[in-house]
From TrEMBL:
It comes from the Bacteria. Signal peptide: none annotated. PROSITE patterns: HTH_LACI_1, HTH_LACI_2. One of its GO terms (molecular function) is DNA-binding transcription factor activity. Residues 9-63 form the HTH lacI-type domain. Keywords: DNA-binding, Transcription, Transcription regulation. It comes from Actinacidiphila alni. PANTHER family: HTH-TYPE TRANSCRIPTIONAL REGULATOR GALS, LACI-RELATED TRANSCRIPTIONAL REPRESSOR. SUPFAM superfamilies: lambda repressor-like DNA-binding domains, Periplasmic binding protein-like I. This is Transcriptional regulator, LacI family. InterPro entries: HTH_LacI, LacI/GalR-like_sensor, Lambda_DNA-bd_dom_sf, Peripla_BP_I.
Length: 341
């Protein structure tokens, strides 16, 4: 029997057979990404050889585990279906969780009552961790998650002093590159349509715009060239109308999202302006909308699906290891040039 007893194989036996520590075996079983490929293969081979079957009920009880993760979107559900950004994030999260035992629970929070109810749900430890998408500056949920010592990862952040783990994109650098490209192509009166001011992502993209305007030495760095949007198509339309009233001489627009760029393009067309001959247009995200617009939209590509994957990976690590160290991940962006400039 090679020293094996005839009873049910234990976690310790798997560790001995694989030549690794008990914690490594536990991380492999729990789906933590923080295990080398070599160690993972050794553990999986040992599990197969010994016929080890994890007792999920005992594991959940011992670790106070539920094998469930909440994906929280504090926006109306209509935005989930209208904006490709959310579906791309969810696709990445789902792909990363596909080979684990974790169930993903989608939760919308639109009112203080719903937030309070979800807080009670968290306090009862009904989930092992939380992924929070679309972070607003005044959202109390991240602070509640910290108070409850609940593993959590944000998509974006509330400020540059964010204390909760997050996965973000280089919003400042991406916006700066987009606007610099407009100036490099000879545009001189470059406007921007921003996202909501209570979202750090929107402020970062506005900062990038301002840095590029300043670097170009343009006289157009005025408040009348900045119009507030809300990351929706209607918000883009509304902001573009405001800009045309203020500055009919605009020859370029940087919209802080592809969806707002689509709304802006519609208003430009209605006003008799051609894209790009009269007004160049750039978006942010490089979503399917950018590729299917007419003309195709130059846009800043952020790896949205990879952001979702990374969020899930970081959260699995926090759940498996209960580490106190928070991780802050910023992914690179890239300007994708198409026909709208």
């Amino acid at each position: 029997m090679n020293g094996r007893h005839s009873g049910r194989p234990t976690l310790e036996e798997v560790a001995v057979r694989a030549g690794v520590g008990r914690g490594t075996v536990s991380r492999v079983i729990n789906g933590s990404p923080r295990v080398s490929d070599r160690a993972k293969a050794a553990v999986e081979a040992a599990i197969a050889e010994l016929g080890y079957v994890p007792n999920r009920a005992a594991r959940a009880l011992a670790g106070n585990r539920t094998d469930a993760i909440a994906l929280v979107i504090p926006e109306p559900e209509t935005r989930l279906f209208a904006e490709p950004y959310f579906s791309d994030i969810i696709r990445g999260i789902g792909a990363e969780l596909a080979d684990t035992d974790m169930q993903l629970l989608l939760t919308f929070i639109r009112t203080p009552k719903e937030r309070a109810r979800f807080g009670q749900y968290l306090a009862a430890h009904r989930v092992d961790g939380v992924l929070l998408v679309s972070v607003h500056e005044d959202d109390p949920l991240p602070d509640l998650l910290e108070q409850l010592e609940m593993p959590a990862v944000l998509n974006g952040r509330r400020s540059d002093l964010e204390s909760v783990s997050y996965v973000d994109a280089d919003n400042v650098g991406g916006a700066r590159a987009a606007v610099a490209h407009l100036f490099a192509r000879g545009r001189r009166t470059v406007a921007t349509i921003t996202g909501p001011p209570d979202m750090y992502v929107a402020r970062c993209r506005l900062d990038g715009y301002r840095q590029a305007v300043e670097a170009a030495g343009s006289a157009g760095a005025s408040s009348e060239l900045v119009a507030r949007g809300d990351f929706t198509e209607e918000g883009g339309r509304r902001a573009m109308r405001e800009l045309l009233v203020r500055r009919p001489d605009i020859d370029a627009v940087f919209a802080a999202s592809d969806l707002m760029a689509a709304g802006a393009r519609q208003v430009l067309r209605e006003s008799g302006r051609q894209v790009p001959s009269d007004v160049a247009l750039v978006g942010f995200e490089d979503s399917a909308i950018a590729r299917h617009m007419d003309p195709a939209l130059t846009s800043v590509r952020q790896p949205t699906e990879e952001m979702g994957r990374t969020m899930a990976r970081v959260l699995l690590e926090e759940i498996a290891e209960r580490a106190s160290v928070r991780r802050h991940v910023v992914l690179t962006t890239e300007l994708v040039q198409r026909d709208s400039v």
